[in-house]
Amino acid sequence: MLGIGVMEKVLAHCLEGAPLEACGLLGGREGEPAVAERCYPAGNGAGSARVYTVEARDLLRADREEEAAGGELIGVWHSHTHTEAWPSPTDVEAAPDPGWHYVVVSLRDLEPTLRSFRIRDGNIAEEPVVLQ
Amino acid sequence: MAEVRLPTVLRPSAGGSATVPVEGDTVAEVFAGLVEKHPALRDQLLTPDGDLHRHLNVFLNDEDIRYLGKLDAKVAGGDTLTLMPAVAGG
What we know:
By secondary structure, chain A is of the alpha+beta class. Chain A contains three helices and seven strands, in the order αβββαβαβββ. β3 of chain A pairs antiparallel with β6 of chain B, so a sheet runs across the interface.
């Protein structure tokens, strides 16, 4: 479940970052459903249109701010500027936490597409996204 | 005594602990103490050659240890070492 404000910030950061990939972290609470209440736009340390690396200082900042907010980091989002909103082999290989939610925003078409996935043991499972 | 903060993905290798108090005057010594307490963490922190794993971010208080001498960075009592996995993809 995504807060509407979170959705707006995620899409805005992705569009601002184009043509390079943009990324950031999601904070909130796990559960059924998980709720992403906050988002933390981050720098793409890779500075690339094909790959991303969340800047280490932004990772720490998000972790600290999320802890102060009483939640936890529950996922990451990034944009695909030229391909569909589906995890790439690099996304699957690099997925840092099987408990996280992996949100991919495609900017390939005029309308951005946002989808969310779980990635566990190399397997991709899409999950529904509901705006709150 | 320094406090090591572990991300969720590493906690199963540390008996579920989110924080572990460890003695040590450098990051290398703190890691050695951490691994002694929780051997399953060894390969998630360090390469077979003993270097810092490239997929791991380590912050000494608010500073990335890559800019403080990496494993040789000095640690004082009351310092916090925060471990976080690198977040990347394509």
